[in-house]
């Protein structure tokens, strides 16, 4: 099908219009996304009030309560039983949290975070400020080590008990079953029958363990592949529980991620008092319910001290463990002593119901278990009986336990039970606190370096390339706007101090794109092309070189983001997004501006 020149020009203009429209819409949307970051955020506290709460149900009451304690609030809003208090700094936020903590009821929830102070019309469009990292906002960072071997050892102890029970059931005697120095099991016997029975039991019930003969002994250990899978599953479960615990603390902008094979890194931006977070994050508390035993058989029972240092003999196998607890709240008994109200899931409720129905009149003990580090730096388990009670009637999925200590200890136990028990003990190997003032100083210095680099670059481009230099400067400012808007839009993106370094580097990369294009335009003009032809051919010939250079850098950014963590990921993210916006503004925005101004210039000698 043949087209006339007029028709071809009309089609070209039609497509050009769409290109300009897409370019304008994209730039405007990214600029709007970047605007909330200009206004910034303020520390805030949110309280979800219960229906029966009447002492914090108005902004006036909240304001009077804080002013009476010398705490100033920037604004207080109350909507749908949710009170939001905004403060000028983290110091006032921390003071207000301490004051309000004494008035918030047990059915209320309080959390502290940061809220945007951008105009409401921007917030209504869904735009939010860029999230700042720990080095810019201040806060606390913990590095934890997960003792996976300890979790394997506990599973090994359970396997040892099962092997002993199986040997007694099969009436096989003369075998010794014990733990070896690491996480394995050693079975010694002079009879072949014992080895056959143990091998058969392990292969049928514990396929992830393997048995190997060593002379007159049988060595049982977890398979290498099974250990790797167990380690991965343990880390995933611990990460999930850590996130739940931090949510229970009311910290909404925390970062919890795996670091290395057995490490967990936790960042709590804005937290200036790490004591409570440290107690909850590092705790490994769990509960187990055991029947009190009258047997003297040491194999089937265990003895644990209670708060009075008396030994309580318990059936070794627990009736119920803490994994079935779905909720725990602090309450008070008739003597106004703190107690913990516990709710179980369906499976746990059925176990407790079945057990208590057949053991009415008998006693059951609640065992509190936690891990600690001894003087030799080894992880050890500590257990104590916190309550012994007689079963008066059939229990269900809800019941109460006492003996958890004072009110603060009961509240901490309830929090840990709600958030879940860790599947492996953890130890805090590093703690680092960054003050809010240091974070503000990092922001000031970082953006001062960015402003200096941007100013010098704009000046150089304007003087060296004259009119085209001004186009490059417009594209560069547009690039910064688009980059900040894109960082704010990407889920999970966090701006760190190395991320600001990535912004400074982006300035150089964005200018480099324009330099390549402008030098190609100069080359085409030197060949005798008209200005319009030089522009067209200069852009077309420079695109391939620009793509090659940026793709290789993008590969580096992707690798850094994949294998790095924390600040390194922040730098890689900013670098990668900067590459995208640099190519977008350098190739498309610059050409759109130049085409509008000089697209029909037929002169062959133009000073660029």
Overview of the molecule:
With 608 residues, the protein is an alpha+beta fold. It contains 15 helices and 23 strands. The strands form seven sheets. A four-stranded antiparallel beta sheet has the order 2-3-1-4. The chain has a four-stranded antiparallel beta sheet with strand order 11-12-6-22. Helix 12 crosses helix 13 and helix 13 runs antiparallel to helix 14. The protein starts with a helix and ends in a 10-residue tail after the last helix.
Structure classification: alpha+beta
What profile does the largest beta sheet have? 4 strands, antiparallel
Q: What is the typical, i.e. mean, pLDDT?
A: 77
Give the fraction of residues assigned to helices. 40-55%
From the structure above, extract its key features.
disordered N terminus; 608 residues; 4-stranded antiparallel beta sheet; single chain; 15 helices; alpha+beta; flat; 23% strand
